[in-house]
Amino acid sequence: MSATGPVPIRMTNDYLFRALLQRSNSALKGLICSLLHLDDKNVTSVRITNPIELGTPVDAKKFFLDIKISLNNQSIVHLEMQVVNQYNWTERSLSYLCRTFDSLKSGEEYQLVKPVVQIGLLDYTLFSECPEFYATYKFRNVKNHHLYSDKLRLCVVDLSRIDLATDEDKFYQIDYWALLFKSATWEEIKMLAKDNSYIADAASTVYQLSQDELIRLQCEAQEDYYRTQLGLKHEIDKWKTSTAELTDRVQELSSKNEVLASEKRQLLAWAIEHGYQQN
């Protein structure tokens, strides 16, 4: 609580995000209860089933920072932080969801399959045409909206649009968690920690993690990776802009050619009508 000034690494860093939830079961429980609208009294067990050895180097080719969680030993929650738009989240999240759902062992009945929730915390807007802070997707009939099954669910938190949080989002303090992950200073974090004991535990854990040199090095490596990804995204966006401008120019010239061709046909018809010879 005595920490001041800027935080060394924000919690949108997916390595720090995982380290936090793996180190603090209290923070993990609080976040899951908030996102899934659960009363913490009804959550008896929440544990990460794919833990990592914190502080060890990450091989990007073999390693993913997504988190698989067993909730009350009855359902599975798949959680991931992503700050760079790689333009594949819809397909990626569906892949995670279906892969995790297909967990029955040989000989088990289909009715025993556990419900799965895929939650993505994204630092960008997934669907620019319909921005939303916290969105939930289920499988429903397209005509009458009847729920097909409640065992598959996709959730998306847009960390860049906290301003769109609804009263329901605020009631479950999902906006508090989003503000925590985006906080740039310890002063901001301490303000949030005043009103939420789970966030207070998260803040304390993050402070401890930030003092661990090995963990800090891995977080910094992730930051370097983000910068590379953002640089590539910037170049892709520039290419898309150039391509769009070129397409617009081609369409403009094509329209002018059509106008000129039409005028030429009209002039030729007028010439023929008035007895002029075609040159």
> What's the β-strand tally?
6
Mean pLDDT figure: 88
Q: Tell me the number of structural domains.
A: 1
Structural class: alpha/beta
- Biggest sheet overview: 6 strands, mixed
Q: Rg to the nearest angstrom?
A: 26 Å
Order of strands, main sheet, comes to: 1-2-3-4-6-5
How is the quaternary structure best described?
single chain
Choose one word for the global shape. Answer: elongated
Helical residue percent?
40-55%
- Helices and strands, in order, run as HHEEEHEEEHHHHH
- Enumerate how many helices there are, as a single number: 8
Low-confidence stretches: none
What do these coordinates show?
This protein is of the alpha/beta class. It has helices spanning 14-23, 25-35, 89-101, 167-171, 174-182, 186-193, 197-210, 213-273; strands at residues 46-48, 67-71, 75-82, 116-122, 134-140, 147-158. The chain has a six-stranded mixed beta sheet with strand order 1-2-3-4-6-5, with helices on both faces. The radius of gyration is 26 Å and the shape is elongated.
Short description:
The protein is α/β, with parallel strands linked by helices and 279 residues long.
Task: Name its key features.
single chain, 279 residues, alpha/beta, 6-stranded mixed beta sheet, 8 helices, 47% helix, 15% strand, elongated
Write the layout of secondary structure elements.
Blueprint: H1 14-23, H2 25-35, E1 46-48, E2 67-71, E3 75-82, H3 89-101, E4 116-122, E5 134-140, E6 147-158, H4 167-171, H5 174-182, H6 186-193, H7 197-210, H8 213-273
Helix pairs in contact: 1-2, 1-7, 1-8, 2-7, 6-7
